[in-house]
Amino acid sequence: MDLFGIPAPLLFGQVLLGLINGAFYALLSLGLAVIFGMLNVINFTHGAQFMMGAFVAWMLLEWLGIGYWGALLLAPLIVGATGIIMERLMIARLYKLDHLYGLLLTFGLGLIIEGLFRNEFGSSGLPYRIPVELQGAWDLDFMFMPVYRGWVVLVAFVMCLATWLVIEKTKIGSYLRAATENPALVQAFGINVPRMMTLTYGAGVALAAFAGVLAAPIYSVNPQMGSNLIIIVFAVVVIGGMGSILGSVLTGFGLGIIEGLTKVFYPEASSTVIFVVMALVLLARPAALLGRS
Amino acid sequence: MIDISNSGRRNFLSATGAMALGAATPMTGARAQAAQTIRIGVLTDMSGPFRDISGPTSVVATRTALQDFGNRGFNVEVLVADHQNRPDVGVSLVRQWIDRDGVDVIVDVPSSGVALAVNNVVRERNKVYLNSTAATVELTGGQCSPNTIHWTYDTWMLARSTGAALVRAGGQSWYFITADYAFGHSLEGQTMDFVRSAGGRVVGSVRHPFPGTTDYSSFLLQAQASRAQVVAVANAGVDAINVIKQAGEFGLMRRGQRVAGLLVFANDVNSMGLQVAGGSVLTETFYWDLNDRTRALSQRVVANGSPGGNRPSMGHAGCYSATTHYLKTVADMGVVAAKADGAATIARMKAMPTDDDAFGAGTIRADGRKLHPAYLFQVKTPAESRGAWDFYTLLQTTPAEEAFRPMAAGNCALVRS
Q1: In this structure, are residues A234 and A32 in contact, taking their beta carbons and an 8 Å threshold?
Q2: What does the pLDDT look like over A24-47, one tens digit per residue?
Q3: What is the CATH number of domain B156-284+373-403?
Q4: Residue of chain A nearest B310, judged by CA positions
Q5: What CATH class does A2-284 carry?
Q6: Partners of B128 in the β-ladder
């Protein structure tokens, strides 16, 4: 059976792969959306923090013998802690200023972090193996599906859902949303708003690091792995509506699929198609898909 | 120690390169000293995807060559700059080096786009250009120059060694995953020619955007669906690492397809790990564990401070070998004459046979092609490897005279009759 001149099994496979890549986009844009939504900071360090997650996983394994499962828990905590320090020392000073200042600061920090890692570890990357439990593959009829990729989709989906629930359905989440609207008033109710901001930034960074650990076994663990993804992820956040969590998650998965299909029909354009979609969405709906106008 | 100041952007100075080689030379003032000083500019990628296959280890390898030239009556200084893989940056650095800093010879220069741009500047200024790490065969073809020697490898050599060998080993049908830019296209095209002329078939190809592609699973799925016996990877550096890593994940090798990286260096294998790369085949002109001389050279490069214990691969070995032969030539013809005329120096280099620890005995052809054997290696599996950097089993050696494109086929103006 052929669809649009492509054998149907191949097409199903591509949609599935698109979904897997979409999972990474969703997970990364989730952290960005949380940070922007709550702190009004466009966190350009996100790519570097994603990369740090992967590197910390590698360091835990090589230096301390802590494997993948430990890293999945520890790396986000460690990188999240560095995020908290960064927020306290630098980013917190910029909340009252224009977005541009935060963007420039985080962009610069991202470059510095990437440079430091490159200086220490070189550019071609380090090996990191898929954990034994997740090795192997399922032989679906239409494709060969690595178990690990299935795991990534599952975890990303659960993580996205959990974050959305925390922010939309819990008390802490309601404090956060209130603090974004009117920090002075929330502070007057006796809630420590600066600390909440710090922890939110830490959590957003931890999400990036978590995605980094997930990525370590399938992509090369190298200093520029984040900068390759970050631009796409920004497009995802913009299309989904800046700060909208549900918007970023849905857009992440959706764009993954569109990109996957482009790789079959017109592979040369696969890195540009996301930006074409972004331009079209912004033309039609300046507030983007689920954005607050 | 000679101090040089150099204020160029991202232009690092390496005063240690100025080893006191001419300690025995009587110094009669700064002017005399400048006239007796050879300046080598290592133009390389210090911060991008080719850092490990060139970069700091190329600098160390170049300096290692200086150690063999104590007391020859001249000083040698090494300058280093990062071209960021951008032709405009590379060209302006080289202009500045030649016009302001008195650099006599440019070494290394990975990334074909930058390599070709620099080729023109060096020719215009009549200096010496010893390219080690760029792949483009144009340097000894349409854009060959009397001031240039292309030292280590090129796309034609890789295509011939890996392509023809795999067809002979039973790889009849081929699928290409190719980086969508000049280097990828030419590597793909030349390999296809060899595959077809050896009796193989090309069943398909896909071109991925460059740079910025990190996930290759879609392309690998297409390669898998093609049922080709060989999946050829026509890209380099981190891209090749990601393709091969993900090919393992999607079970291409387990289902009997052979994955061949057309340009993979030992440093890339180190990054992938043998678990991933084991069993694949590749071509290099140098491997640290090939013989006593290569082992000795590699030990020296690591001892001289190659970062992270990065062992030299062919690009680094080429920097050592080219610098060694250049300095021999300078010693032979005299510093003043060598500094005055780059083309004359290159002509002299071509006239002298080469011999060094990296490639053994060799020659340089009139079109600027350095000739030495090419080696087809199979990457060891983790079970076969005896330790760190024990990577390759030698499958086949292509002799120097057959390894590179015949001069007549290159259409180089220097040798056209």
Answers
A1: yes
A2: 899 999 899 888 888 888 899 999
A3: 3.40.50.2300
A4: A122
A5: mainly alpha
A6: B105
